[in-house]
Design brief:
The complex is a heterodimer of chains A (113) and B (115). Chain A has 113 residues and is an all-beta fold. Chain A is 0% helix and 52% strand. Chain B contains no helices and eleven strands. The chains are: A mainly beta (113), B mainly beta (115).
């Protein structure tokens, strides 16, 4: 069965600093990979997705992620963090038929002003 | 485009009581999902519908949880009787089809507290 690991439970960065959130997956073939963001009291919003092709994908709000097959990773990056980026970030994988998403446990991002 | 609508936003009940949640997906979306998100964890799929048929309910505790999507649009999720460990946020999501490359769109969820 597929699994997703987000090794960092909490991350704190200063506003304007760069950000990288880690995500590792376990699956035999190339999965479909997603990053979602969840603000307090709200549902999940899709930031970006990877299906195939270019391994560097661009998303909304200035985020990007890079798929590295050799490392089974799909890390999320942003060159300059804004205070409004404070939220919880979830990496997810969808495999096979049926579009079943398996989520990681999330990374809580705090932004210091 | 209107998003996924869920109600109520919050619900507090005592253990052994029953509760129901409602979801209205994005118009035209054939696939509907219910997730349970326990505090500090990622969402876990409970059940997936394709139109009015169940695609996957392997992680639904069927002794107490039930869900339906009778007309292939709105859906309800019921818990009866509720246990303390059911305290969680229940998220509804929808996608255009059930293909793995279709992004899922989430509602704001219903936060359930069991006393």
């Amino acid at each position: 069965a597929q699994s997703v690991t987000q090794p960092d439970i909490h991350i704190t960065v200063s506003e304007g600093a760069s950000l990288e959130l880690r995500c590792n997956y376990s699956y035999g073939a190339t999965p479909y990979l997603f990053w979602y963001v969840q603000s307090p009291g709200q549902g999940l919003q899709l930031l970006l997705k990877y299906f195939s092709g270019d391994t560097l994908v661009q998303g909304i709000k200035g985020f990007e992620a890079e798929f590295k097959r050799s490392q089974s990773s799909f890390n999320l990056r942003k060159p300059s963090v804004h205070w409004s980026d404070a939220a919880e970030y979830f990496c997810a994988v969808s495999t096979g038929g049926g579009n079943k998403l398996t989520f990681g446990t999330g990374t809580q991002l705090k932004v210091e002003l | 485009e209107a998003g996924v609508a869920q109600s109520p936003r919050y619900k507090i009940i005592e253990k052994r009581q029953s509760v129901a949640f409602w979801c209205n997906p994005i118009s035209g979306h054939a696939t509907l999902y219910w997730y349970q998100q326990i505090l500090g964890q990622g969402p876990k799929l409970l059940i997936q519908f394709q139109n009015n048929g169940v695609v996957d309910d392997s992680q639904l505790p069927k002794d107490r949880f039930s869900a339906e999507r009778l007309k292939g649009v709105d859906s309800t999720l019921k818990i009866q009787p509720a246990k303390l460990e059911d305290s969680a946020v229940y998220l509804c999501a929808s996608s255009l089809t059930g293909d793995s490359n279709q992004p899922q769109h989430f509602g704001d969820g219903t936060r359930l507290s069991i006393l």
